[in-house]
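#struct-queue
[09:14] JT: dropping the first one here, sequence first, then the structure tokens:
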Amino acid sequence: MFLRIDGTPLHVRAEGSGPVCLLTGGLGSSWFDWDLVVPFLTPYRTVVRFDRPGYGLSAPEPATRPAPTVAGEAARILGVLDALGLRAPCTVAGHSLAGFHVEAFARLQPGRAAGLVLLDGSVEPAPRPLPAPGLRDLAARAVAGAATAVAVPYLFGPTVRRLVARASTVRREDLAPAPLVRHCYRTGRALRALLRENARYLDMAAELDELRRVAPLPSGLPVTVLAADDGCGSSRTRDWLAAQRGLATLLGGDFRSTAPAGHLMMFDRPDAVASAILDSG
């Protein structure tokens, strides 16, 4: 279905029954990246997933819209739930960059969060916003527009998506349906959304860092941090797991790891992802 949220038509999926959980993906993700997880959840939960503007089947945001912020993404999550008439507290699960979004939602909408799950969530210790946010957003739009004008997304978008997905799983394959990948990643709107979010990454990390000081998580909120362990035992893997454990400590939550799994853990270990969500609310 499509819902107009703050003026932008968003592609939204709602299925299953029972208490609500909302799933939102990381940088460049589409709704179908959760396809392997959803069947584990729908017997017990109403599962909501959506494409942020420009991704998947959602329309791009108008050029007049400001650059992404964590408060804005938290408001978008609230808008999706309200538009579906789902006003009871729900579990929110965010992968990678979307960990910022769902944590902000839990802090800014404490009465609407029943659980918080961060799946290999982004971690930035002591982040500082970069200068000239408006110019950076304008540059991201310009680069995306120029690339689209010479058909770069059409020619290379699906291939790049495939390569990134393969590098992000221990199985080294993209399990997303090829026709959907071609349909969604040949578009300039997906490239523009990705570049805009990437340009704002440190700004959003700094915004969330400040939010942690002024908006505490609800008392007693179940928080789970699930980290991907590729099983290699490398220093990079150890450092990543330590950062994820530190995030769990910072949020007063439970730390779990799942192996073998790459960053796109929804492909490698959908059962572990579902278990973390089911156990959190």
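[09:21] JT: and here's the second one, same format:
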Amino acid sequence: MSTTHTQQRRIHGRGTPDADWQAWPGLSAMPVTSAADLVPAHRRAVIVAPHPDDEILACGGLLQQLQDQGTQIVLLAVTDGDASHPGSALLSPLDLARLRPQETVAALTTLGVSPQIVRARIRDGQVSANLEQLHHLLLQLLRPDDVVFSTWRHDGHPDHEACGLAASLAARSCRARLIEMPVWSWHWAAPGDQRLPWRQARRLPLSDAVLKRKQQAIACFQTQLRDDASTGQPAILPPYVLGRLLHPYEIYFL
């Protein structure tokens, strides 16, 4: 991965306005998929979440649909998200390591989803440096015919990209199916951006009830939704970020 390409995926500023994405015909033209197509009967879904909240932002709708169809779900929580507020006098790394996993549990309860949760406890922001550890854990966890969902290998956040890489290598070794999920891509990319694998993209429709529960689940992540008065830093998930991720559909790269 070249430095130039990584810089092109920088997450800074307000990013691409959601209105630009909604005006792009490519979204509505994407082939539609379903939970049953993504995870057929008698197969497990393994969700690889770099940080607490990624499992809801990326696939909170799908999780509900998988629960409804009786799919066994395993959530691999790669980090506890303890580095989200550097220098904060309100939320120390110890506070975050305690609170953010609790927020995930509350969010999953709000969704009505009860996965098996496996915690890797890799340091937040250090997934790339611990790629071998994550890869080894995935090799132990995965079974043939599992369907593995991970953040996309080129999503822009280093932890997201490392999780995608580890998941792709482990899925290939274990003969599992890999499906990748864009999260921060909606921030730095632009409609029709040729750096994204649009031909592999599928759109999963969400009902009004499913979308409402996803929105309610996101509200559980209060550490990420509030400005930090001690540092002057804005919320990690301000409305303009959530606006790109809370639509009546989710996008998956097959």
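[09:30] RK: nice, looked through the second one.
[09:31] RK: The mean pLDDT is 95.
[09:31] JT: good to know. The two ends are 21 Å apart (CA to CA).
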